[in-house]
From TrEMBL:
This is Solute-binding protein family 3/N-terminal domain-containing protein. It comes from Planococcus maitriensis. The keyword Signal applies. One of its GO terms (cellular component) is cell envelope. InterPro entries: SBP_3_CS, Solute-binding_3/MltF_N. The keyword Secreted does not apply. Residues 1-22 form the signal peptide. Residues 51-273 form the Solute-binding protein family 3/N-terminal domain. It is found in: Cell envelope. Keywords: Signal.
Length: 281
């Protein structure tokens, strides 16, 4: 009987040890996976591969879009990233996807950075790292020309329908002002909807809106010049805790700002120098 009890005790201890060992292996594997995941965005891996994989929408004129003539991807953010690639001696590979899928793709390691006029906000900084600012601007709105869509100041957004991307900070701002956000992908889809009265406005960077109106080139819309809000800065986004990558991107981008390259690109695509902070009265 004593031998049976001793055997049973030995069996329980052995089983417990095996379970503990299994859990330990699982934790180790999880740690290894986490380490490998973090490594996917390390500067060392990017430098070794010689390639920087960049996520962008390709539908956000004039920041990231396909040229109608050449059918090539271009735009302010696109050309800034290409200049950074040249500076760092890297091939740049763009992956186009919907705006709302960019940050999830970044988290999952499908891309190294996201370039799509991402405003640097406290909420985003909790989850991601940003480069030094590549663009400074402020928010405004496009409204109907004949009646201003009933929007002449920011306060008038309450109760209005505003078209925009689901996860855009401009959509968040519209909701904060009491507007209803109707989700659209790309300015080319939302602008005709404003003319038709299905939505009242779209909010975005005022420089982007000016260029969007020029590209739209049809009557019925205008910039709401007295609607000015949220001075902001935008940058390129990378996974959180990517110090080596951030250091390399910041150094290259700072050189491009100082030597006038970013100014030249912004004048071409945005019609203004966006390298200096702005103030809104």
């Amino acid at each position: 009987m004593k031998k049976s009890k001793k055997f049973l005790l030995f069996t329980l201890i052995s089983a417990t040890a095996l379970i503990a060992a299994a859990c330990g292996n699982e934790d180790s594997n999880s740690s290894a996976s986490a380490s490998e995941s973090g490594e996917q965005n390390s500067w060392e891996r990017i430098e070794e591969s010689g390639k920087l994989v960049v996520g962008t929408e390709g539908l956000y004129f004039p920041v990231t879009y396909f040229d109608e003539t050449t059918k090539e991807l271009t735009g302010f953010d696109v050309e800034v990233v290409r200049a950074i690639g040249d500076k760092l001696g890297l091939e740049v590979e763009f992956k186009t996807m919907e705006f709302d899928g960019l940050l999830p793709a970044l988290r999952n390691g499908q891309i190294d950075i996201a370039a799509n006029d991402f405003s640097i906000t406290e909420e985003r900084l909790e989850k991601f790292d940003f480069t030094v600012p590549v663009k400074h601007s402020y928010g405004s709105a496009i409204v109907r020309e004949n009646d201003d869509s009933g929007i002449t100041t920011v306060d008038d957004l309450a109760g209005k329908k505003v078209g925009g991307a689901a996860t855009s900070n401009y959509s968040d701002y519209a909701k904060e002002q009491g507007a209803e956000v109707v989700v659209y992908t790309g300015s080319d889809t939302v602008l005709p909807e404003i003319v038709q009265g299905r939505v009242d406005a779209t909010l975005n960077d005022y420089l982007v809106l000016i260029q969007a109106l020029e590209q739209f080139d049809k009557p019925g819309l205008k910039l709401a010049e007295n609607v000015k809000f949220s001075p902001n800065s935008s940058g390129l986004v990378m996974q959180k805790d990517s110090p080596e990558l951030k250091e390399q991107l910041d150094a290259a981008l700072t050189e491009l700002i100082e030597d006038g390259t970013v100014t030249e690109i912004s004048l071409e695509f945005l019609g203004a120098d966006v390298t200096k902070p702005v103030e809104v009265e």
